[in-house]
Write a structure and sequence with these properties.
single chain; about 240 residues; alpha/beta; binds glutamine
Length: about 240
C-alpha cells in the first residue's frame, strides 16, 4: 500500500514542535511496509489532493500571514478532500483557522474555512500546561499553549472531555473537534509519538480512502506507552 501525507504550512507555522507528528505518522506507516510520501504545501502553493493532512500550531502573526492564503479555492479543495474521506490532524493555530473565524488580540478577525463548526476568540489568559483528554479514540495526553477560546457549534463533535487541563475554552469541559475523519485539537507535545492509538486511527482512515477497509497490524509500542503514561503522570501533578 501507499500513502501520501500533506504537511500544511510547515514552514510558516512550526514553533511548537508539531513536526514530530509528521515523523510519527511517516514512521508508523513505514514500520508496516507502507510506501509513504510526504508533500508540503505553504503560502501560495496549491492544495494537494492526498490521503492525510497535518497542520500544526503557530503564533498569531504567523496565522495572520496564512489565514487569507486558505480562502477560496484552496480551502474549498481541503474541505472537499475531507468530505471525500481524507484524514486530517490540526493542532491549535491550524485548528483555529479550520473553523469559521479566529479573532486574535491585536488584529482584525482572521477568516477560517468552516471545515469545523467552531469559532475562536483570543481570551485574557494563556492556557499553558499538560492536558489529558478522554476521547472515543482513547485516552489522549498532550501539552497546551493557547489563548484562543474555541466554541463548538452543532455541526461538530468534541474530540473528547478534559480530564485535566483547560481544553477548548476552560469552561465547557470539551477539548478539540471531530468531523468525519478530521480532528482539531490543542494538544501539542508533539502529540502522536505519545498517543500511538491516535496516530494509527489517522493512518487507518487515510488508507481506507483508496485501499478499502484497512486494519493495521500492531507495533511494539512499549516506549510510546511508557512516554504516554509518564506524560499522564505529569499532567496529574500539574
Ligand atoms: N496563536 C494561537 C493562540 O494563542 C494559537 C497558538 C498555537 O498554535 N499554539 O491561541
Amino acid at each position: 500500500m501507499d500513502l501520501t501525507l500533506a504537511w500544511l504550512y510547515g514552514r510558516e507555522m512550526n514553533i511548537y514542535g508539531d513536526r514530530g507528528n509528521v515523523r510519527a505518522l511517516e514512521q508508523r506507516a513505514r514500520w508496516r511496509g507502507i510506501d509513504v510520501t510526504v508533500v508540503t504545501s505553504g503560502l501560495g502553493d496549491p492544495m494537494p489532493d492526498v490521503d492525510l493532512y497535518f497542520w500544526g500550531g503557530g503564533q498569531d502573526q504567523e496565522q495572520v500571514n496564512v489565514a487569507h492564503d486558505l480562502q477560496g479555492a484552496k480551502g474549498d479543495a481541503l474541505k472537499a478532500a475531507v468530505e471525500g474521506g481524507a484524514a486530517l490532524l490540526s493542532v491549535c493555530g491550524g485548528y483555529q483557522l479550520l473553523g469559521h473565524e479566529y479573532r486574535p488580540h491585536d488584529d482584525e478577525p482572521l477568516p477560517g474555512i468552516g471545515l469545523f463548526d467552531v469559532t475562536t476568540v483570543a481570551g485574557p489568559e494563556r492556557f499553558i500546561g499538560n492536558i489529558v483528554v478522554d476521547s472515543p479514540i482513547g485516552e489522549l495526553v498532550g501539552f497546551e499553549n493557547h489563548s484562543g477560546l474555541t466554541t463548538l457549534g452543532p455541526g461538530v463533535q468534541p474530540l473528547g472531555r478534559v480530564r485535566s487541563g483547560r481544553g477548548n475554552n476552560g469552561q465547557d469541559g470539551t477539548e478539540g473537534a471531530m468531523y468525519r475523519n478530521a480532528i482539531g485539537c490543542y494538544l501539542h507535545g508533539s502529540l502522536l509519538p505519545k498517543n500511538p492509538v491516535l496516530a494509527d486511527w489517522l493512518l487507518e482512515r487515510a488508507l481506507n480512502r483508496r485501499h478499502g477497509t484497512v486494519t493495521l497490524p500492531p507495533l511494539d509500542d512499549t516506549i510510546e506507552v511508557a512516554a504516554h503514561a509518564n506524560a499522564v503522570g505529569r499532567a496529574g501533578r500539574s
